[in-house]
Amino acid sequence: MNIREFINTIKGYGLLNALIMELLRDNDAYNELSRYFVITNTNNDLFLRPIGIVKHGLNDDVVKSSPMGVDGLIEIFDEFIDGLRNIDGFSHLIIISLLNKVTKEQQKVLVVRPRRLVRFGIAANELPKIGVFATDSPHRPNPIGLSIVKLVNRDGRFLRVSGLDLFDGTPILDIKPYTPDRSVGINDLRTPNWYSALWKRIGGGVI
Asked: Fewer CB atoms < 10 Å away: N or C end of the chain?
């Protein structure tokens, strides 16, 4: 069996993502992969290696249709467990993820409709077409996700959270605590007119 046949076999069993994640966790394999998957600039080399993975067992459609997100686990790989020291006690976490199901074609999209609002009952054709950087659409040049979740509890290297808007198996790139200095006071918060109008339609308060 040649390498192409091997890869097709792995894909056929739905194990390609699992194989990639295991390769990233193995130091020798990681060092080999980093020769090919690396961004070089004049100062240093950057290779974004996942520190963990999302686990909840739900299919993608359930996650997409959940207005407030779903409950689940963030599994942190063994070698990064020390990075969780003193994370207990924070109520919310900022999760940086790699949206690994976004296709190359979807990464080329620069104008979208803010479809997250469809979850709240607004029809897709009622949503304005706006620049992707004015939305949290997953279809963007660099498919990096930012989520704010509630930390329910921690069990070793497993973080039980609620409010997840990420698919099962999504690689996690980084975690940061959500702290008061990151908050924006309601009196300082402003949004464009198109967003304020839609927000009021779904029962949101005055912005």
From this structure: N
Residue 6 lies in a domain: yes
Looking at this protein, which amino acid is placed at residue 110?
A: L
pTM: 0.80
Instruction: Confirm if 137 and 114 have CB atoms less than 8 A apart.
Output: yes
pLDDT in tens, 84-97: 999 999 999 999 99
Within a domain: residue 5?
Answer: yes
CA angle, residues 127, 130, 133, in degrees to nearest 5: 125
pLDDT in tens, 44-81: 555 678 899 999 999 999 999 888 899 999 999 998 99
Structurally, the chain folds into a number of domains equal to: 1
The whole domain housing 13 covers 1-47
